[in-house]
Amino acid sequence: MRRIEIAGAWLLGALWVLPLAYAAWAAVHPPEYATRFALLAPWTAANFAQAWEAAPFPRYFLNTFLLVTLILVAQFLLCTPAAYAFARMRFRGRDTLFALVLLQLMIMPDVLLVANYRSLARIGLVDTILGIALPYLGSAFGIFLLRQAFRQVPQELDDAARLEGSGLLARIWRVYVPLAWPTYVAYGLVSVSYHWNNFLWPLVITNSVSTRPLTVGLAVFASTDQGIDWSIITAATLMTSAPLLVAFLIFQRQFVQSFMRAGIR
Amino acid sequence: MTALRREAVQAWLLVLPACVMLAGFTHIPAVATLIESLYTTPRGARPARFIGLDQYRALLDDPVFFQALGNNALYAAATIPASVVLALLMALAVDSRLPGRAALRLAYFTPTMLPMIAVANIWLFFYTPDYGLLDQLGGMVGLGRHNWLGDPTLALWSLIAVAVWKEAGFFMIFYLAALQAIPPHLREAAALEGAGRMTVLRRVVLPLLMPTTLFVVVNAVINAFRLVDHVVVMTRGGPDNSTTLLLYYIYETGFRFWDTGMAAALTTVLLLILSALAALQFGVLGRRVHYR
Amino acid sequence: MHRRTLLAAAGLLAAPSILRAQAAASIGFYYPVAVGGPIPAIIDGYCQQFRAETGIEVKPVYAGNYSETLTKAQTAIRAGQGPSLAVLLAAEMHSLQDADVLASLDQLGPVDRGWIEGFYPAFLANSGAAGKLWSVPFQRSTAIMYYNKQAFAEAGLDPDRFPRTWAELAEAAAALTKRDGAGRVTRWGVKLASDVGNAQWTFGALANQAGHRLMNEAGTETYFRDPKAVEAMEFWHGLAARHGATPAGSTAWSTLSPDFLEGNAAIVQHTTGNLANVRSKAGFPFGVAGLPGKAEPRTVVGGGNLYFFKHASAAEREASLRFARFLTEPARAADWSIRTGYIATRPEAYDTPALRDYVAQVPAAGVAKDFLPVATGELSTFENQRVYKLLGDNIQAALTGAKTPAQAMADTQSEADRILKPFRA
Asked: CA–CA separation, C137 vs C130, rounded Å?
């Protein structure tokens, strides 16, 4: 029984890395081996060189990095005070407002791309990185998670800080943020992976190399009139995914532990 | 009284920035979409004109719309349970004392790191008939040729498989964290009382995982209606609309056909579906997991 | 502090749009090609030459395939940030005109009739409407057949004689289809693209082969219910159903090239623009031939024209026209054709020494041009993308057996009638 489970787990694991394994295979062998698997196939780095040269990947990297950072920082800055107010303060209309906020959990900006496009065109932010980010800055998900975390902070700590003369913002910053830090890490991972991978909205809102994130760059790169070339595409895929893969490899233990303590459960 | 009012003012100031952003890009555009769906699409010299519910009447006559609805229902009904159950099994596997579980955990998580847009091209190779990976492997055991993405009976299932592959590992991380947060003595106690592994799982572990399940299911539902990257790369809704999902149809109508009025009507339908699902989740499930 | 850095960051990130609005002496140019491959380098080179000659900077934006570029261009124009000119599908003329975004040629500056008359007439087929010209041919192609000569020899066919009729094609394709012991096909006789966005091009050629034109000049009427259109659909369907020479179901454009290079398809119908790519990668002798026809060879033109947009300033329009004339100079058109495989859009380019020598060396490069006299214009109507999708869906339904060819064509026509009704005055 146990052995079957182990075998099953490993089989599943093998299935799950298969696309990555294939990418690694196709990227380091000449194109004629992209669809054919021979033990003695010659090795080459030409695909990487070609992919690197064919598209401004460093620029796409920079765009994605700026985008993800901008969104993450702004989400933290916007969601933290809101989450605190919803968790710890009393004001009229709080519950209605919170329900309205929660609505965005399901109705994400992606669905409203036509209307959002028009808004951004009106304020002249089409084809800017800020424009890609703007619809996601207020995040119901972030507010929701942080509110859960803040509610678990003992009220006494808040009171003690207040007695010491700390103002509202200082208390949020010194008491709540440190204690909810695991939630920030967990939410950060969700946010980064979401926006690192996001495609449809950036596709719609960007027009030029100077704003395109990696995903859009990859899509433009892969669609040619001449047909698909797996060797180059896999090389580009590996190059562009490497940073996240390496980061997870290094930080995976911390990630899991943050999740554990974040109490997303 | 003044202290309370002061608190209320402070609270509003704290929630205001986030709420302005939320309203500006979710609530207001949602309402604008609703209004827009009552007008014709402005084209060139012809301005928009009020037509009431005509767009919705046109939708009722549109077989592609119903096909997209049906496809999306099937897509959701298949991807949500499959990815959640697989995520749970994966988490249980790497939570137990399995040989090489660190490697396994990484293996399960790789799809999360690879942008859908990139892996869709890789899956395109897996699904290529005759010399694609699946047909090569199938050929070894004597299976015939499959036109995975070109056969209307297979195409949607092929995309479902990609979506499950993409999501399960991501959800696993949340289950894993929840599993590791379960105090060991709870399970030990149950085991001491002579409960079998399955019983412990059913009676102790699963109930404790309920909040995680809610969280994961919410995300899975969202993705079932939000993620259409693989449709864009792999099938563009074909063959004969068998893989057209609602959001893809909206994108096509709004940005390829430039029929913004019709796209607004479609979006409104999608918003209604999502609101209904949200009500269902927080009403029914929410009560059972004691969120507050 | 935080807010100030955030605002500064916001300003920085918004900068590209601000800079673009101020830029003068330069024009934006959308180009439908993936970043990568040889074509962007060639276009970049032309832009640099143009700048050296005129001082005007042309800024190309490579925006993906034709339909993506079309989406991008329209999106950008709606946002008030559109390019001054773009290469878009020639067949999009009616739709673009309806969207009221185009400047006709006479709105750009004085037009030289001699220059216009120097283009191949087939390439101007999708340019005229309402008595005006709306685009200039540039990245033009026709559909041609690439065939594997080795496979031809193996199947006992003459590698130097490509089928000229439907009957011959079906027969050859059936002979080229190879099955292993278990009955699995290891090589298909012929493959034609039938996925969304490409099916209508394949079908345009087939309809012309049956001697049928699918739409009227004004782009307001389509003729899918015609027996000849049904016949074309039946022939396509029959290649799989009757002759077993092409796979059942839908076939994707993006895998046609790999299919051919892999030896999985002995014949593929593709664009002339793929010649350079196939030449560099094929590991076997291959031939290029014109498409067959029901009775004799017929084909369809394809590819992109240069469009000019009316939101551009007078100076930008004039610069765009200059650039268009620069691109279509005989020597440059010849260079373009040699380096890509696309057809030079003007006969005089074929009289330049460079192209004459090249065609003598690589006869395949002359094939597409020779078939221009039997080429028809691409399907082009108002609401073009919608009609394309409609036709594509129905072609797929016919190929997958969900509808009979006649039913598929009838459905296409009645839905097309509904879509085009508002445009019939």
From this structure: 18
B41-50 long-range contacts (CB < 8 A, ≥24 apart) are: B41/B258, B41/B259, B41/B260, B41/B261, B41/B262, B42/B260, B43/B258, B43/C98, B43/C99, B43/C100, B44/C98, B44/C99, B44/C100, B45/C100, B48/B261
Could you write out the DSSP letters of every residue in chain B?
-HHHHHHHHHHHHHHHHHHHHHIIIIIHHHHHHHHHTTBPPPBTTB---B-TTHHHHHHHT-HHHHHHHHHHHHHHHHHHHHHHHHHHHHHHHHHS--TTHHHHHHHHHHHHHS-HHHHHHHHHHHH-TTTSHHHHHHHHTT-----TTTSHHHHHHHHHHHHHHHHHHHHHHHHHHHHHTS-HHHHHHHHHTT--HHHHIIIIIHHHHHHHHHHHHHHHHHHHHH--HHIIIIITT-STTTT--HHHHHHIIIIIS--HHHHHHHHHHHHHHHHHHHHHIIIIIHHHHT--
List the single residue in C196, C386, C397 with the smallest CB-CB distance to B237. C196
What is d(CA B165, CA B110) in angstroms, rounded to the nearest whole number?
Answer: 10
**DSSP letter, residue C180:** -
Interface contact B240-C185, CB threshold 8 A: no
Residue B265 forms contact with A (CB below 8 Å): no
Q: How many residues does chain B have?
A: 292
Check: CB of residue A57 under 8 Å from CB of residue A173.
no
Residue B287 has a pLDDT of 57
State whether A220 and C14 contact (CB < 8 Å).
Answer: no
Q: Which domain range does residue C258 map to?
A: 142-301+377-423
User: What CATH number does residue C69 fall under?
Assistant: 3.40.190.10
Give per-residue pLDDT as tens, C188-207. 999 999 988 899 999 999 99
Whether domain A55-262 has CATH 3.40.50.1820: the reply is: no
- Pairing state of beta strands C185-191 and C178-179? antiparallel
Q: Which of residues 152-171 of A touch C (CB under 8 A)?
A: none
- Say whether B147 and C402 touch across the interface (CB within 8 A): no
Q: Please report the ipTM that was assigned to this predicted complex.
A: 0.85
- Within 10 angstroms of residue C204's Cβ, the number of other Cβ atoms is 28
Q: State the angle between helix axes of C227-241 and C384-399 in degrees (0 to 180), rounded to the nearest 10.
A: 50
Q: What does DSSP say about strands C26-31 and C57-62: parallel, antiparallel, or unpaired?
A: parallel
C-alpha to C-alpha distance for C98 and C77, rounded to whole angstroms: 14
Domain count within chain C: 2
Residue C205 sits in the same domain as residue C118: no
Tell me: do C179 and C246 sit in the same domain.
yes
pLDDT in tens, B44-65: 777 888 998 999 999 999 999 9
pTM, full prediction: 0.90
Helix (H, G, I), strand (E, B) or coil at C30: strand
DSSP characters over B211-229: HHHHHHHHHHHHHHHH--H
CA distance linking residue C324 with residue C85, whole number of Å? 9
Whether omega for the bond prior to residue C121 falls within 30 degrees of 0, making it cis, is: no
Task: For residue C12, tell me if it sits in a domain.
Answer: no
Q: Are both C279 and C419 inside the same structural domain?
A: yes
Q: For residue A262, name the pLDDT band (cuts at 50, 70, 90).
A: low
Domains of chain B listed by start with CATH number: 1-36 (no CATH), 67-289 (1.10.3720.10)
A21 touches chain B (CB under 8 A): no
Which residues in chain C come in under a pLDDT of 50? 1-3, 6-7, 10-24, 35-36
Size of interface A-B (CB pairs under 8 A): 296
By C-alpha distance, the chain A residue nearest C78 is A121
